[in-house]
Amino acid sequence: MIATPNAARHAALSLLTCLALGSGPLAADDPEPPAAASAPAGQLYLVSVGIGDSDNMTLRAQKTIAGADIVFGMQMVLEQHAALLGGKAVYEAGHGLFRELPPRPTAPPGSPDADAARQRDGEDRPALEAQARRVIRDAVAAGKTVAVLDYGDPMIFGPHTGYLSEFADLSPVVVPGISSFNAANAALRRSPTGGVGSQAVILTRPPRGEAEDGRAETFRTLAASPSTLVLFTMRTKLPELVAQLKASRPGDTPIAIVFYAGFSARERVLTATLDSILAAVGDAPLPFAHLIYVGEFLQGASPE
Hints:
Elements: H1 5-20, E1 43-48, H2 59-66, E2 70-73, H3 75-80, E3 89-92, H4 112-121, H5 125-141, E4 145-150, H6 162-166, E5 173-175, H7 180-188, E6 201-204, H8 216-224, E7 228-232, H9 238-246, E8 254-259, E9 268-273, H10 277-281, E10 290-294
Parallel strand pairs: 1-4, 1-5, 2-3, 2-4, 6-7
Antiparallel strand pairs: 7-10, 8-9, 8-10
């Protein structure tokens, strides 16, 4: 084969380059160059979808979900955001997996509390945990993106924080979102840090009956503080809660209940005092979605 002038020039330049770098042309017995790096590992996300209406989700959350190959979520979250999940593998996320949950009072059979307890502590819990371990670890190792969907702020009484500890070696990323606390503040149109005597806020929950008797003293100490008290509650037994609060605060202390914070069509605010709140609420049980505020920042708020 006869080399062309261009080919000859190219060979000469290659030889000069090798000499300048202190190396020669690759010989037949030289070791093979290193193999290309393996495909990067995937990523696990804990993603907030916000609270209430679907448009309370952040753009970052939408982009993260759009880029996910696999999604875990509680049934109510998966149903509300089904339009975003087309073409993705979807799994049940359970409630409180991979962590020890606080005790709850025994609920009468057939009651809503009993149904919730079965979902939370049922026999399928070990199976859900085993499934999540297998699916998430296999997916991330294969370079896929997994999103665990949560509502509200995942780090404020979030049911899925156990995923962060279980998969800590995968360096999961948390995508924050609008909490019921943020939505309820907007509904109140008052700043919980706007009190005259205190600009502090305590986020907590009340003790759950006899199952948490040991926590009652701690709660009384928190309730006695002049700070705004924000209670994250589920199926509150309001008479018991009011009695607990009145053990630490006077009866004229303002209180507000925000119903369905973030749900524009259902959101409602009820304001009263510790002395008058039970009469204002009446005998109807409180809905699952509500948040309770106690504090002097509510002073002068119009009862509704």
